[in-house]
Amino acid sequence: MSSSRQFPSDVAFTPSVKAIQERKGSRVVFAKQEERGGWRTEISEDLKNFIEAQISVYLATASKDGQPYIQHRGGPAGFLHVLDAKTIAFADFKGNRQYITQGNLAENPKAYLFLMDYEHRRRVKLWGEAKVVEGDAELTAKLMPENYKARPEQAIVFTVTAWDVNCSQHIPQRFEAADVMMALAARDRKIAALEAEIERLHEAKEATAYGVKPEV
């Protein structure tokens, strides 16, 4: 932890933020959280499982002048790799070639990851520093999702400073299209099976009515 920060949450709760919290009456709540340990600085096993299950992430950076930028990155579950208790990494696929994130990180390593799980109404915020790793074919290959149709250009490695989990308030519940399609397909199969069973029972009833022994 930086010598200028007393608590992990100080990465976000700057003196200016704390002054507003004080003015609006929430500082006492967060002060108690800080005294109890507050935000965590290492990736727990539960967080690791959550991160590696995600198919989408937002990476925020800023230029040396403080101009913010948010970039979306996605891929199959597992495209985000937890390398150790402090490190997350992923293959950076070729895209629109604007390189805003890379340019920002070249002059300001501070970064932020925002992960949103709409299905379970959970969001995780991670503060830290990031770097772009070019020319490391072994690392890029390790991070590249198997059989995924994308061209990796480099790798992004994120070092965690602190993280926090927000409450679920105001998060709309949404489901992935692939999951919905699978659920609908399973429903349709069940309906088809029930309809076939109804038809069989109907034919058996008719056969019995006419004195014909139904087939079983």
Task: Give a summary of the structure in a few sentences.
Helix content is 35%, strand content 28%.
Highest-level CATH class of the largest domain: Mainly Beta
Give a count of the beta strands, DSSP E runs of length 2 or more. Answer: 7
Main-sheet strand order equals 2-1-5-6-7-4-3
Share in β-strands: 25-35%
**Overall mean pLDDT score?**
91
Describe this structure in words.
By secondary structure, the chain is of the alpha+beta class. It folds into three domains: 1-38, no CATH class; 40-166, Roll (Pnp Oxidase, Chain A); 175-216, no CATH class. It has six helices and seven strands. A seven-stranded antiparallel β-sheet has the order 2-1-5-6-7-4-3. Strand 3 (81-84) and strand 4 form a beta hairpin. The longest helix has 33 residues, at 177-209. The mean pLDDT is 91.
List the helices and strands and how they pair.
Elements: H1 15-24, H2 27-35, H3 45-53, E1 56-62, E2 68-74, E3 81-84, E4 87-93, H4 100-107, E5 110-117, E6 122-133, H5 137-143, E7 152-166, H6 177-209
Antiparallel strand pairs: 1-2, 1-5, 3-4, 4-7, 5-6, 6-7
